[in-house]
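Q: Protein A?
A:
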Amino acid sequence: MTETSTKPYLIRALHEWCTDNGYTPYIAVAVDERTVVPREHVQDGQITLNVGTLATNKLVMGNDYIEFQARFGGVSRQISVPVNAVRAIYARETGQGMAFEATPSEQTTSAGDAGRQVPAEPPAEDRPALSAVPAPASSKDGDDGPPEDDPPPGSTDASQRPRLKVIK
């Protein structure tokens, strides 16, 4: 028997955490042929969706798909997102949340690149470490994140921004 992925459970848990704390849960989604979203809002093969209770109707967060109705430009649309396509879930107000790695089948195609090979992500050891909570003031032994005095590329102040942890 195949073991069920932890990803849909983590997405539901973080959605609940955001809601319980009065935050707005957003999901970042890699759009492909199985993703039903308004294509006019897709940028660079991705879309960010508000999945808060006030922004959605009939929200169902299943193990395979996240489905709901939402308004875009005042028009109600049916949204269907494969859980595998979710790249991150986070609180809009704080940025706290969790990022996910692409699965092998998702690394080779995207909606804008159908039939064309897209480079896979670099190995985990070559990517910056991410964590689900703001970085502590001082680095602890065993911390696999970058040193405090070495902020991630492109950031101006690493202590002001939360870091996300990649979950396989």
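Q: Protein B?
A:
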Amino acid sequence: MHDKLDSVDIKILAGLAEYGPRNVKMLARELNIPRGTVLSRIERLSSSFYLRLLTTVYHTNLGMKKAVVFAEATPGEEDLLFKCMRLNDFYIYLSRCFGVFEGCLGIYVIPKEHTTEFEQFLAELKKTGVAQDIQIQWSTCFHTVNLTGNWFDNNSQTWTFPWNKWLEEIPSKKSELPYTLTDPDSFTLRADQTDLFIVKELEQDATISLADMARKLGTTLQNIRYHYESHVVKHGLVETFQVAILPFERSTSDMLFFVFRFNTAEKMAKFAQSLLDKPFVNIVGKVLGKNTLVSQLCLPRLEFRNFVDALSKLARDGFLQGYYYLFQDLRVGKWSRRTIPYQFFKNGSWAYDHNEHVKSLQDLVKKPAPSTTASS
């Protein structure tokens, strides 16, 4: 029988996001739950619900622009396309996808001065014939949506999905975007080598201590603490803690990536605000210069069609201009996630080798010449 979240689990998950994964003692005190119970629950959630305690990076302040790439594979080349997209060292998330087309979804963080070269890399990828079409959306940083008790019924200890109530609340939401979803004025690099090391470590494990970071880097605790407090925090290099979890039964739910289009900024902002406390939303981003949102969702299959029906109602009412979606393939080997490309930060700037990316691409897709052995 599938393990289910209960109300105590939900409170612990919400508390981990609010107080931080390293503050379990404070969380236990605030919830009036023994620390040992909190720790054992976290361990169970990690094994049963794939709980990961991470940190969301604010790439804008690292001098990087985020790119969301949709690549339609040439039939038969789906896995090769996935391998080709991994060749660019600046991806942070890749997955095979299907729906509107069969192909790949990629999320990249590109140094601001190399965005044109990245677009050229994608053009070269299309020229190889591995991809039939490639679309790129330059996006703001993503707003992380952590799990709360909203839409969780404490009496039945189950999730509810009041779609009609959601539709009613959207028009009343604020018409301003959170700072994470506003188009930035600039993409200023505000970090040094030590800052980026700290950010990289927090991104892959938000529970790591400053002392452990100091040992890994071979420096003093005082140095790490100074960079964390005076640079990482003050310069806004991280957005928030990410309590990443699959809240619904994996075998009967799907991970999807949606694109939502609006004809006004006000409607887009209200819709975005309505998503920021919902249990089926993981992340939300905004396409730069457009009234368009991108979002990763996790939905039970029985609720997916109800969600689409709600979107259809919004479109009929003239609130939503259009949308499309892709299902993500989460089988082993069909997706990949990694941290900021820390290893390519050298001498105070990002080292982006466009020529090497293109050469690696050409080498991977090169077809062996046909045999010319003469018959006897």
